[in-house]
Automatic annotation (TrEMBL):
GO molecular function: heptose 7-phosphate kinase activity; heptose-1-phosphate adenylyltransferase activity; phosphotransferase activity, alcohol group as acceptor
Matching SUPFAM superfamilies: Ribokinase-like
Record keywords, A-Z: Kinase, Transferase
One GO cellular component term noted in the UniProt record for this chain: cytosol
Carbohydrate kinase PfkB domain span: 15-312
InterPro entries documented for this protein: PfkB_dom, RfaE_dom_I, Ribokinase-like
Chain segments annotated as coiled-coil in the UniProt record: none
Keyword flag Transcription: no
Pfam families: PfkB
The name this protein goes by in its record: D-beta-D-heptose 7-phosphate kinase / D-beta-D-heptose 1-phosphate adenosyltransferase
Amino acid sequence: MLTQKVSEIQFKQKPKILVVGDLMIDRYIYGSSSRLSPEAPVPIVNIQNESITLGGAANVIQNLVSLGANVSVAGMIGNDNAGVQLIDRLKIDFLETDLIVKDSTRVTTLKTRVLVGNHQLLRLDNEVVHPISTALENELIDKINDAVQETDLVVLSDYNKGLFTESFTNRVVALATQHGKRVIVDPKGLDYKKYKGAFLIKPNRKELAEASKSENINSIEKLKNAANVIFDQTEVPYLVVTLSEQGMVLLSPDSHVELPVKATEVFDVTGAGDTVIACIAYFISLGMDLADACELANHAAAIVIRRLGAVTTTVEEILADLTQRGVQGIQLVP
């Protein structure tokens, strides 16, 4: 029974997971609006409150910490105030930041959202996405080399912000493979060949369609055909494709399992993909079967999308959700 499996792993030693990714800050400005500007046909927002949270790969890290993992963080930030804020927020969770390099030629990615009530009125992005330099790539690889040896699993959280060049990605995957560590990937962009050698790639439906050059992935057969393109390109053994309101599908070259959405209501899907990749990484690091880990990730996503913003969940909350639904387990089918 799946609930029993979850209960048993709670007593295991915390897994060590290395997250390599595009680190970001999410800034939220909350206000009210009752009139339009006389200068242009846009709302005037009276600011009432502001907050910042970790975004991108840093949100994957927050999810892993919330689940109970020991996390190492590797990535790239700018030499700026947003970078300082990001480091400070990571240190709140007692995370080591020695594997983060600073690039003086870029800004730390900062996404500012303006909200009136629960409505997002505007988003402002401050970022530089040119590829990482060879010098910084070498510096980061040197840092990662020792960390890979001490970790149980490596997560690549790619937001297409310049870190995951073909060279850098190949080198990270090769390091992990050399030390017998599995790599799971949250991908971006059109070229998945750079992820060759990974254990699992987790695109959403739109990302899969673009990377496989497929159209109208609206059936399981079309989904499997698109997945086969990626299997041929990357030789990965597994894909997990998230399908928004339709849940997710776990595929291998010769089998699949459909996991319907578990949410009873959808309030905000922000960060749900980060929760899914974090849960899969956490549970398979503890030795759980991949299909069961995906089922748990599906429940975790259902929990977080009932809340506003990029939020996290815990093993205890997932266990409570499983118990409430009476979930037993799942099987892969041809």
